[in-house]
Each structure stands twice: as C-alpha cells, then as structure tokens.
Design a protein that fits this description.
Pfam families: Abhydrolase_6. The protein is α/β, with parallel strands linked by helices and about 240 residues long. About 45% of the residues lie in helices and about 15% in strands. It has helices at about 25-30, 45-55, 65-80, 105-120, 120-130, 140-150, 155-165, 175-180, 195-205, 220-225, 225-239; strands at about 10, 35, 60-65, 85-90, 185-190, 210-215. It has a six-stranded parallel β-sheet with strand order 2-1-3-4-5-6, with helices on both faces. Helix 4 (about 105-120) crosses helix 5 (about 120-130). The longest helix has 17 residues, at about 105-120.
Length: about 240
C-alpha cells in the first residue's frame, strides 16, 4: 500500500494508453494528488486491479477511462471499503459473450494484433484510431499525433497482454448494482466504441450514479474535450 496523501485520485488509462490520456486532468485537478497507473505487463483485469491497490493509499478516489473503467470496477470488487468515489469514462461492464457470440470481438482484436506485429504499432494505430475520436477531429493533427505517439510507445507483446485481459474480462454487473459511493458516468456523445446507450444501462444499474455526456467527443474524451472532462471531474470530486 502506498504512502497516504490527502485527496488522492487514482487515474486508470485504457487499452494502449498511458499518462498522456489523463495529463490534462491531472494538471487541472491540482488540489488533488493525481496518480496515473501503469499496468506493466499485466494480462488480466484482476492483475491490473491488484497493481492499483498496491500503489494506492488506504483511501482514495478512482477514475478509469475505457479499459481503465473495467479495472476500476474490479478494484471496487476487491476492496470497496478503500474507494471513496468512482468515475467511469467511455467504458463498459459486461463480460465477453461466450461461444460464437463472442468470436467477432476476438477476431477483430486479433486482426489488429497481427497488424501490429507485422507492420508496427503506429501502422495499426492509424487504422484503429479512426474510430476512436469524433469524426471532425480526424483532421486535428496535434490530437491525432498525440494518440498515435501514445500507441507507438507500447509494444505488440504488451498489446497482446491487454487484449487477453479484455477478452477474458469479468462481468461487473453485480459490482455496479452494489455501488454505494458517489459515482460519475461520463461518455463522449459520439463514442462509437462505448456508446451513450451503454452508459445509460450502467446508470440504471448503479443506484446513485450521475451520467454526464461530453458533447463533440468520441471515445478519447479526456483528450478531445479535456476542459469539459476536467470541469465535470472537479464538480464530482467536490460533491
């Protein structure tokens, strides 16, 4: 367990993301001790949650983006008494369907991994990132370069580990239903990976959650609309 800080906020990145995905928020929330987690080579959601709990103080706030939202829910499953509040951004909660129903997801993810191994992480990222942002942001050179650079900092082996974690992710329906801490759900209006409808389902499951939709943003809401995301997080942290 890490050294205790007053007002610690653990920030959990998503698939192939690092501190760049939370940088703007960590700077904006300067009255909090923000700690962005690196999962290392962990290849299960459970192992990633274990890393968070080892790095976190005894009591902390928690925010997870995309895959990081699933890790955040696993942290709650393992140690609900340690989490003071939770924010889940552009994420999901269900496990992968069993049998044939779950094969399309596996096929798509493995095709991206194969491309990463043969053509490199950046080439894969150029394909993958097209669906990750609001369509209007595809021409935003600075934003797209920051996303591609983040992906390029990862390796195919790390990509494989995180794909394994997602393909074998636990179902968190029961965790959402049991939430009793202040809960914020946030999603980009144009998120095609984790759509608004899924977050509405999560809001119905979580008893006292608040749902906020970020306008003019896709899946990478923290980077696409950093000021809007930071403002909503600041309000949630003060509530």
């Amino acid at each position: 367990m890490a050294e205790t800080h007053t007002n610690t906020l653990m920030l959990l990145p998503g698939l192939l993301c690092d501190d760049a995905v939370w940088r703007e928020q960590a700077e904006a929330l300067d009255n909090w001790h923000c700690q962005i987690v690196d999962y290392g080579s962990a290849d299960t959601i459970t192992a990633m949650a274990d890393i968070v709990l080892r790095q976190a103080p005894a009591r902390f706030a928690l925010a997870g983006h995309s895959m990081g939202g699933r890790v955040a829910l696993e942290v709650i499953r393992q140690a609900p008494e340690r989490v003071s509040r939770i924010a889940l951004l552009d994420t999901g909660y269900e496990g992968r369907p069993s049998g044939e129903a779950g094969e399309p997801e596996r096929t798509k993810r493995m095709a991206l991994l194969a491309q990463a191994r043969t053509e490199g992480m950046r080439a894969m990222g150029e394909v993958w990132s097209r669906g990750m942002v609001h369509p209007d942001r595809l021409s935003d050179t600075a934003l797209m370069e920051s996303i591609l650079a983040m992906i390029e900092r990862k390796t195919p082996d790390l990509f494989a580990a995180q794909i394994n974690a997602l393909l074998n992710r636990p179902d968190a329906t029961a965790v959402l239903r049991a939430l009793r801490c202040p809960t914020l759900l946030m999603v980009g209006r144009q998120d095609s990976w984790s759509p608004v409808e899924r977050h509405e389902e999560m809001a119905r499951l979580a008893p006292d959650s608040v749902l906020q939709v970020i306008e003019d943003a896709g899946h990478m809401s923290t980077m696409e609309q950093p000021q809007a995301v930071s403002a909503m997080l600041r309000q949630w942290l003060a509530s």
